[in-house]
Amino acid sequence: MSVVEVRHLAAGYDGREILRDVDLSVASGDVVAILGANGSGKSTLVRTILGLVPVRRGEIELFGTPQRRFRHWERVGYVPQRLGAGSGVPATVGEVVASGRLARRGMFRPPGAADRAAVHEALAAVGLVDRIGDPVSTLSGGQQQRTLIARALAGKPDLLVLDEPTAGVDAASQEAFAGALTEFAANGGTILLVLHELGPLRPLIGRAVVVHQGRIAHEGVPPEPAGHHAEPGHDHVHPHADEEKATICEWAPTEGTKAY
Amino acid sequence: MDLLTYPFMLRALAGALIIGLAAPALGIYLVQRRLSLIGDGIGHVALTGVGVGLLTHQSPVLTAVLVSVAGAVAVELVRERGRTSGDLALALLFYGGIAGGVVLVGLSDDASNASLMQYLFGSLITTSPADIAVIAGLGAAVLIAMLVFRPALFALCNDEEYARVSGLPVRTLNLLLAVTTAITVTIAMRTVGLLLVSALMVVPVAAAQQITRGFRSTMAVAMLIGICAAGAGVVLAGSIDTAPGATTVLIALAAFLLTTAAGALWHRRRATPAAHVEPPDVVLHA
Asked: Is B57 left (phi over 0), alpha (psi -120 to 50) or beta?
């Protein structure tokens, strides 16, 4: 069964068209990575699928239902790039993860034992049970990202959509992350994730889709790491990585060559 | 306290306690959304409603509710559309509201500075039994809505996009917040006055979050601080003959200073020897 079906999709913000003509099909149990350079439209693609960016042309179906009429949002777990701007009002890890239960429970019913159990289970999956009562603002970036995965997992979705979940995340969190996603996929879950590079999630990914200039430029099995890329423990750092990483790249020897 | 034997004092106290409880329960969501000043803005708009009421010989509280609800919904629609022009649109609406209010009150039969001051800075002592019934009814409605929908409103204010993907009725919830803000502003108008309404929504929350770790505990402590400040404000104002609204706000601010000091002290004591340092993004190989 098709979980996500996108046909001739065009979408964008404020009069600027970012996606031009995109076709994508994700079947139940697939793990699909969307790759592409910054600004290629890969994030816009998943955000349009989720209904956060308006569709201009084309169609989107979720679980066989046109997106406009889709109501079973409890089947979809969304992991955004980062936690919304810290507002000053403290919130504990448990409270943030508990919002993941709303889609399933509905907003009129108070949380019950099943909700608390699901929150615990989701936090266990990302290794953060011991932080349940801590304010999220005291967590590291990687731990906050794990909290967001736990929030999505707590709703027990069939489809997990992640937007660059590993951007700027420490190694321990990346492992906890890969573990949680592997478990989710092993239980038959479908995963659609935007990535800047395959990294530690490489073994999990069944298919890679490359977005370039608002279109799908390539689709197929992810490229096998070759040469020194294949060495165990190799941590790939692109010389053209994000702006914030650029300062690190100036002194970090990457790809075996001096950067300066 | 002899003062409390007077029925008007008891009514003043009851009104203040209801507002003291309801205003922070709503205010916490506004603070979380970084809309701390919205109550102030809606207060400006409500003054036009007061002017309409005085001019047309209707209940000023009723017309203020209607006009400020319309204003709050307009603000919400502007906020939803865009971000950049929103700030200016809000400014226009707020100044239009207060200017319209001053002009309309001036045109009415009751055109005295005293009647204007009564709405700008509150006038608990003149609160009638009918007013208290309205304040109690609407205050209870606001409080119940804020408590019942806490998980949904928390999700909305914490991460609006996530709430949307969860299938929550985001627009309805935003409008609920807008309407309850307008109602709270209007009923609090009699207690603290339109110019100090926002303080009762925001200051107890600001005070509470200095010493709490979670959202739910912040809400509970803020409501406690709100009700204590409102009660103490009325009693103190009655005995030293000051304005109850301003006295209440000063007490809430004193609570803020107190919790800030307590929070700082507590953090210093608990300061862990070495905070967990996140390893750098890049792993260097030998």
From this structure: left
For chain A, list the domains and their CATH numbers.
2-223 (3.40.50.300), 225-260 (no CATH)
> What does the pLDDT look like over B23-74, one tens digit per residue?
999 999 999 988 888 888 888 899 999 999 888 888 888 899 999 999 989 8
Give the list of residues 6+ apart from residue B241 with CB closer than 8 angstroms, or none. Answer: none
Class of the CATH-defined domain B2-198: mainly alpha
Q: How many CB atoms lie within 10 A of CB B277?
A: 8
Given B34, B209, B214, which is nearest A92 (Cβ)?
B214
* Contacting residues for B218 by C-beta, under 8 A, at least 6 apart: A89, A90, B28, B205, B208, B209, B212
How many angstroms away from the CA of A134 is the closest CA of chain B?
7
Contact B158 A52 (CB under 8 A): no
Whether the CB-CB separation of A172 and B283 falls below 8 Å is answered with: no
If you measure CA to CA, which chain A residue comes closest to B159? Answer: A84
The helix (run of H) or strand (run of E) holding residue B117 is helix B113-121
Q: What is the ipTM of this complex?
A: 0.84
Chain A residue with minimum CA distance to B150: A107
